[in-house]
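ingest -> fold -> write
write: protein_1
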Amino acid sequence: MLCRNVTSAIELFLYLTVCQVIGMYDYTAQNDDELAFNKGQIINVLNKEDPDWWKGEVNGQVGLFPSNYVKLTTDMDPSHYQTNFSTFAQVLLQF
């Protein structure tokens, strides 16, 4: 049962991911709702409604980040996903 729940959670995560981007620069979060990342790090974009601040996920952490600090790596091509699923599953199990 747990395996099915984790698999479903991963499938949901892939469904919710808009695209993946790569950090062009290091970004240090300025507020609690922001997402910090390093240059070269892959970010799963969850929301692009605001053209300047996107919502994303890195290693189980979710937050906002400036869209001009990243560049597009994929556009919904699941073969390129570089998500750490074990970290994501651990975050889900905490809920």
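write: protein_2
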Amino acid sequence: MWNFYKKTPKIWFSDQGGEFDNKELAREAQAEDIRWEFSAPYTPEQNGIAEASNKVVVNKARAMMIDSGLPQFI
């Protein structure tokens, strides 16, 4: 697992979502000597950068849908 700068991260920080509860990711983290940390449940404030990025993506997708002329409720 490499990041944008072609370096292996030392820590993975994620929420406790089900998509991260997986043995393959745990094996990868252990093999690469990566510490895995989780935010507290129901506290998106602890992961502000990801939450802000998600908001940007949702807003852009909404703008493209409105601009396309498709019905807003599909």
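write: annotation protein_2
The chain has a mean pLDDT of 86.
The chain has two domains: 9-38, 45-74.
pipeline exit 0
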